[in-house]
């Protein structure tokens, strides 16, 4: 029992350290780099993050459950089939992603970094998910820390001590090394499992089954992540890289609300919601939803308030007057993220009930509404057009999910209900 508690504490600590490292990175980059470089970093990071979903295809939503429910002797074959599928996706999509540079959306000198980080981040993400699926959560958290946190703890002191290192290439090199080491650690652990089945023929029926399961998840993910990728390109296209730098900084602060909610609230509550619904325990499900609502509002509210209180001192510490001049962006960006955080309350209620359709449609609606909203608002609101459009999109997503959950609220929990998630 004691060892279990210690393991959980270490696990939470590693994930907390990862989150704090990512949170601090954007502040120090804003101090060390020029706003235009911060903007480029944010653009590259968002582009890599979005492209990962395309090459990964959300296939893990199928493969993870298959591995968990299968005998160990079948794991090797499943991993081989998944690897072949990813190789096919790479061959199909990587050439198409060159359009980002051909069309001038990002400068050519970032192309090698983009493709290197895309491949490494995707492999690291899939290895993390695999480690969780095979009941190695502590090692998975350690690999995640190496991938997203440890390199930050190394590169920031170096940039502080040596002004010559204060450039975007230093950050990208450290990022590449960090995720590369994480991939090596993950691969080493998989090799030590001594799995069999690598030489069996590819089970294309299994792969096709996985594609059909993954597509709905992929659509929902691409839609909501698309909003938070298109926004940066829109700012770049309608303003300049300096403004994009300010936008990336304020967005980094605002998205911390979602990151803390995900790590401190959602991940602990939603599995119990699913279990309660599947077991037909209506009282436990309602109690779980009440707990989810209360904790989301309290934690999100406290973090948002802290962000507003600390924003002034932080911007002064950065010693970059430009960020202070553009501080008006922050309130609207934060409002958009608060709306997104609140939308996760009915989201997990719908998720537990297997109401995938409403989740997917709400996300698609939010993505469809964003470009015309940004375009129309840009005529009269200038720099605030994109934050306003974000608020409109995430408000639509929130109220769509809230209405859908209210309609389904009376739906009784039933044992052995077949969920599509």
TrEMBL record:
The entry's keywords: Cell membrane, Membrane, Transmembrane, Transmembrane helix
Transmembrane segments: 12-33, 39-62, 83-102, 108-125, 137-160, 172-192, 213-235, 247-276, 297-318, 330-351, 358-378, 384-408
Subcellular location: Cell membrane
Taxonomy, superkingdom: Bacteria
Keyword Lipid metabolism attributed: no
Topology class, membrane: Multi-pass membrane protein
PANTHER family, A to Z: O-ANTIGEN TRANSPORTER-RELATED (PTHR30250:SF11), PST FAMILY PREDICTED COLANIC ACID TRANSPORTER (PTHR30250)
Name of the molecule in the record: Membrane protein involved in the export of O-antigen and teichoic acid
